[in-house]
């Protein structure tokens, strides 16, 4: 069986990314896919890009990645943009929208947020209609083989798996900004790669402790706007959006 590690939403958190990459290596997994939001929120977007470029074989674009080339009057976005070269921002803009592959007879599609846009968010508690819309074909998704029966995505920072009639929807959680428990999250998909024959198939969720205090100190030492520092640090400590319940 083949194994693919799927990471997402690093958000410039280098200690978390390093811990996850070390965990993947310890498991002897050679193939890594990244589902976007390499940058945004955290203090080390440039270093996160370099590590993802070096280690991931396939990468899709996230909403923060997309915003790095936009003219938006927002202090958080402006600071992130200031940390990157023009070439790095253009590279983020050039990333594909989705990945499609066969694995153990399952057609799996991977993207950042939804098949509609990197900015359109679908939560695990949304209506059944919204969640089933994740399997829709759109003009943005890669579509070489038909309608997928397995969808994997990032964006919402909540790892989960839900099964519908002959369909599975999973979220890999967040490496650098988890919003359920304060540990880095990623997934391992195991099966026969590029095989249309029904075979053993699994999705495994991995939690990795990482040195949160190191990320906090890196955030405090940066020249990021104080409001953004405080918000990110709250999220790191509480694993809740802006520290709220």
Gist?
It comes from Bacillus carboniphilus. InterPro entries: Ap4A_hydrolase, Calcineurin-like_PHP_lpxH, Metallo-depent_PP-like, Pesterase_MJ0912. This protein is α/β, with parallel strands linked by helices and 245 residues long.
| Poorly predicted sequence stretches spanning 5 or more consecutive residues | none
Calculate the mean pLDDT score and round it: 96
Assign the CATH architecture. Answer: 4-Layer Sandwich
In the CATH hierarchy, the third-tier topology is known as: Purple Acid Phosphatase, chain A, domain 2
Question: Biggest sheet: strands, sense, closure?
Answer: 5 strands, mixed
Shape: globular
Strand tally: 10
| Rg | 17 Å
Side by side, the strands of the main sheet go 3-2-1-9-10
Strand residue content: 15-25%
Number of helices: 8
Q: H/E element string?
A: EHEHEHHHEEHEEEEEHH
Characterization of this structure:
Pfam families: Metallophos_2. This is Metallophosphoesterase family protein. The protein has 245 residues and is α/β, with parallel strands linked by helices. It has one domain: Metallo-dependent phosphatases (Purple Acid Phosphatase, chain A, domain 2), CATH 3.60.21. The chain contains eight helices and ten strands. It has helices at 14-26, 45-55, 63-67, 75-82, 86-94, 128-132, 212-221, 226-238, and strands at residues 2-7, 31-34, 58-59, 98-103, 106-111, 150-153, 160-164, 167-171, 184-191, 202-208. The strands form two sheets. It has a five-stranded mixed sheet. It has a five-stranded mixed sheet with strand order 4-5-6-8-7, with no helix packed on it. Strand 4 (98-103) and strand 5 form a beta hairpin. The model has no long low-confidence stretch (mean pLDDT 96).
């Amino acid at each position: 069986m083949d194994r693919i590690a799927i990471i997402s939403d690093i958000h410039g958190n280098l200690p978390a990314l390093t811990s996850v990459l070390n965990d993947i290596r310890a498991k002897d997994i050679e193939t890594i896919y990244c589902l976007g939001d390499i940058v945004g929120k955290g203090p080390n977007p440039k270093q996160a890009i370099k590590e993802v470029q070096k280690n991931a074989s396939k990468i899709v674009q996230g909403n923060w990645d997309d915003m790095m080339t936009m003219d938006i009057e927002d202090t958080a976005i402006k600071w992130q943009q200031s940390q990157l070269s023009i070439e790095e921002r253009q590279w983020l803009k050039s990333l594909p929208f989705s990945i499609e592959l066969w694995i153990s007879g399952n057609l799996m599609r991977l993207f950042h947020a939804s098949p509609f846009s990197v900015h359109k968010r679908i939560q695990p508690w949304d209506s059944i209609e919204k969640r089933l819309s994740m399997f829709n074909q759109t003009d943005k998704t890669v579509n070489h083989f038909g309608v997928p029966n397995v969808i994997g995505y990032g964006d919402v920072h909540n790892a989960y798996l839900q099964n519908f009639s002959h369909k599975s929807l999973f979220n890999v959680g967040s490496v650098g900004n988890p919003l359920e428990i304060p540990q880095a999250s990623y997934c391992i998909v195991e099966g026969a790669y590029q095989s249309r024959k029904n075979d053993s198939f699994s999705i495994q969720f991995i939690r990795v402790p990482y040195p949160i205090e190191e990320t906090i100190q890196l955030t405090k030492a940066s020249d990021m706007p104080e409001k953004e520092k405080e918000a990110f640090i709250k999220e790191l400590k509480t694993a809740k959006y802006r520290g709220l319940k």
